[in-house]
Amino acid sequence: MNVLTYLDSLDSDVRKKIIKWASRVPANRLSHCRQIRLNSGQTLVHMLDRVDNVYILCRGTVRTTSHNSAGSTYVIDEYHAPVAFGEMEVISESSFYLGSLTATSGCEFISVPREDYLQWIRSDPEALLARSRWIIKNLTRQSGYERSLLTWSGTKRLMYMLSELTRDQIHRGVVEWPFTVRLTRQELADKIGTSTKTVARGIDELKARGMVSVQHGKIVITERQFQRLDDAMKHEGETHILD
């Protein structure tokens, strides 16, 4: 594929962020890249698959998941384009992907062969430093969230997730009030590492506190309810709202 021609077709913000790095890669290595398309629900890589490529998300949204020692699947994070996957494994010389990567919408990726990525990053110290910093920041954020989940109640985890889902829509400029959460009870349970029964109890508690409503089986959040959720998460330590 002609990577630079493809990048010209992307949204301007995404294009600017990707081309910043693509323009530094030698043309002979760019020529080895290929385009991959996924439909929502399709998985690109599974945890413990052999690391053969770095994948750059150019369009769409994805979810990364992992498995705990009990065999349960939990969501590590969700991402919007542009973002790269597999860099940590390649730079750390890991042979296997540390998580699974699944599309949550129609997605397009640029696939970069492992060896081409390694040869480029080794020859470009500035790029190596910048990408390593991004990996460390991302890991720090994820580990902080995971440590918090270990001590939070199921209801507080649900509050956090609903607040973050709503805030994400606000930041992207696509929120419509009241905001309807499209995730199923099972999907919410997977995200916060609890059971569907715990999610159901949490929803009932948040309804009683005036933080969410339920319409036609879906969680609905008004602007005022979001403010209550957000304030509760910011000041939970002082107000003991979940005690």
UniProtKB/TrEMBL annotation:
Residues 6-121 form the Cyclic nucleotide-binding domain. One of its GO terms (molecular function) is DNA binding. Keywords: DNA-binding, Transcription, Transcription regulation. Residues 152-225 form the HTH crp-type domain. PROSITE patterns: CNMP_BINDING_3, HTH_CRP_2. CDD domains: CAP_ED. InterPro entries: cNMP-bd_dom (IPR000595), cNMP-bd_dom_sf (IPR018490), HTH_CRP (IPR012318), RmlC-like_jellyroll (IPR014710), WH-like_DNA-bd_sf (IPR036388), WH_DNA-bd_sf (IPR036390). One of its GO terms (biological process) is regulation of DNA-templated transcription. Pfam families: cNMP_binding (PF00027), HTH_Crp_2 (PF13545). This is Transcriptional regulator, Crp/Fnr family. It comes from Lancefieldella parvula (strain ATCC 33793 / DSM 20469 / CCUG 32760 / JCM 10300 / KCTC 3663 / VPI 0546 / 1246). The lineage of its organism: Bacteria, Bacillati, Actinomycetota, Coriobacteriia, Coriobacteriales.
